[in-house]
Amino acid sequence: MGDLYLGELDERGGCAGNFRVIYHLEKFRIYKYWQVPYYWAGCKMYDLLAGKENMETSYLMSKGKALETFPMLKQDGLVGALVYYDGQHNDSRMNIALIMTAVKLGATVANYTEVTDLHKDASGKIIGAQVKDNLTGASWPVRAKGVINATGPFSDKLLTLDDPKHTPIVQPSSGIHITLPNYYSPRKMGLLDPATSDGRVIFFLPWQGNTIAGTTDTPASVVRDPVAAEEEIRWVLEEVRRYLSPDIKVRRGDVLSAWSGLRPLVRNPAAASTEGLVRNHMIYVGASGLLTIAGGKWTTYREMAKETVDTAVKVFALENKAKSGCITETLRLVGSDGWSRNMFIGLIQRYGLDTEVAKHLSDNYGDRAWTVCSLAEPTGKSWPLHGARISPQYPYIDAEVRYAVTHEYALTAVDVLARRTRLAFLNIQAALDALPYVVDIMAEELNWSHAERKKQISDAVDFFASMGLPRAAVPVLPSPLPRGYSEKTWAWLASGFGYFVATAGQKDVGYSHGRARFEPAELAALTAAFDRHANGTVVDGQPEEVLELAKLSQAVMEVQGYEGASKKDFQYVLEEAGLTKAKQLDFDEFIEVCLPPPLGLCVACATGADGALLDLWKSEGGGVCAGA
């Protein structure tokens, strides 16, 4: 285990030298005195192992200082905190930087291609593969001296193509993350809790202008777009609620996005059958020559690649073509050469950008930000002069969409919203709102027809289900923005008749999956239900109607649409509203529990597998629901 930590810390330093890494503080909250020496010794060992790559030295923080720097913490019983430093990067931009660096050095890359078969010679050695373009359906053979299987949780699929009798080696584990508004944490400090209610570790960190919380560790099956289970989302929220101040309402409706990632824990097929899973990564060469690299993590990606390529050079007899050895330890990635911490100032001065946008472009594109800005259209405003945002809440601009298409192989709206930018991960409602605009910009670059633009919107909304937005929550798809004379004329005529093409003639139909208010009929039905079961009482000398808490479920479930609400659902929304100890509810509290944001039971969403109503709220830019 020590070797694993040393490798990670060493590689972290190399990563920081090659790409923009945001250093931030993390703290262990301490509520028992015996934890002080325990956590302190662990962090000091971490500092020692990091050596020259250590960012800053960890230190103890008093209770008063901890609450000053992290005022959201629960103060009852707090002894203090232990602070240590760690790094954070934008993994989507890091991945693209790696790909574009490989292209710069001569690699050929192909997007949306899939290996459908492996070609072998008479002796059973692999000499190539059959690949398929998943966008066009075209298929063709590729000859190769060797094939490397670096497909993460899908490793077993290629291994089975190689050997139909293959025994699976991947044991995928699902980890869910949720994104919350930025007021949940300070901008420069996060929190790590290694002692949750069931022993799992949870973190709570500032991320890309929001706050990210996670993660769970649950056995899962391998699917392309896993969905975060509602139970897991609620577990994370409940853990967050445990260590934040009681005056902070940790609300399900504050979840802006929720997603699940698969961690490919692996077993080495060359090891004994009784041996457990490897802790880091594994390299395996099959009888056919198929070289598999599986497991590992971002922190050690370069070391994993080095070991894999070194093995490939030997296995595929490439010694005569690879004489220099590995050079990636000192290789600078695309975008890093001309970057400096003050580069954003030059972007502002040359292009007239918002400061937030300029810092975002500098931090995420490095010196390529100049090229991005050259693609920006004038805003037509006095300020900013360039950089039209695709979402008013986030610093992503129109030029990034064009750059993704022209320089980074983006071919779909999902590529831009989830794989070149992080908007879908930060706020799925914002991504949904930006979708027609993004598709419009891409259509200009890729010459998409109206039918293709509609397909892109539909495909993106389908994908958004894996980000916390169930497809059923968008009953009316956003329409493409009109392009060309005929489309604009039709849109103008349609709007003149009192409806918009985008809503197919339905007034007041939005694309938000949240609910900002009751429909009049719903409010009337709930009011009637309250009146039937309420009793008169005197509160502060004034007569008032109140509902006994014991009668809550009976009253609510009389209203159409609420029949499937379970006892667990009622308990959850009462906890969120802080009403679990109440014996009676007045009408306002009753309505708060029933639906309106940020709390409540939902009558508008589909039922889950267990028959319980799922939660759909809109709050602070749109809450999300998973599992529908």
Characterization of the model:
- With 628 residues, the chain is of the alpha+beta class.
- Helix content is 36%, strand content 17%.
- It has helices at residues 2-18, 35-50, 63-69, 91-104, 155-162, 230-243, 301-315, 343-351, 355-365, 369-374, 398-407, 413-420, 423-426, 428-446, 450-464, 484-496, 520-533, 552-556, 567-577, 587-594, and strands at residues 22-30, 59-62, 80-88, 113-120, 126-133, 139-143, 148-149, 170-180, 189-193, 202-207, 210-214, 218-219, 257-266, 281-285, 291-295, 535-539, 542-548, 584-585.
- The strands form four sheets. Strands 1, 2, 3, 8, 9, 10, 11, 12 and 13 form a nine-stranded mixed β-sheet that branches. A three-stranded antiparallel β-sheet has the order 4-5-6. A three-stranded mixed β-sheet has the order 7-15-14.
- A hairpin with a 2-residue loop joins strand 10 (202-207) and strand 11 (210-214).
- Helix 11 packs across helix 14 (428-446).
- The chain is globular and about 95 Å long.
- The model is unreliable at 1-7, 16-24, 498-516 and 596-628 (pLDDT under 50).
- How far apart lie the N and C ends? 40 Å
Q: Can you count the beta strands? A: 18
In round numbers, the mean pLDDT is: 82
Helix content: 25-40%
What class, by secondary structure content? alpha+beta
Shape call: globular
Largest sheet: 9 strands, mixed
Low-confidence stretches: 1-7, 16-24, 498-516, 596-628
Helix tally equals: 20
What value does the Rg take, in angstroms? 27 Å
Our estimate of the beta-strand percent is 15-25%
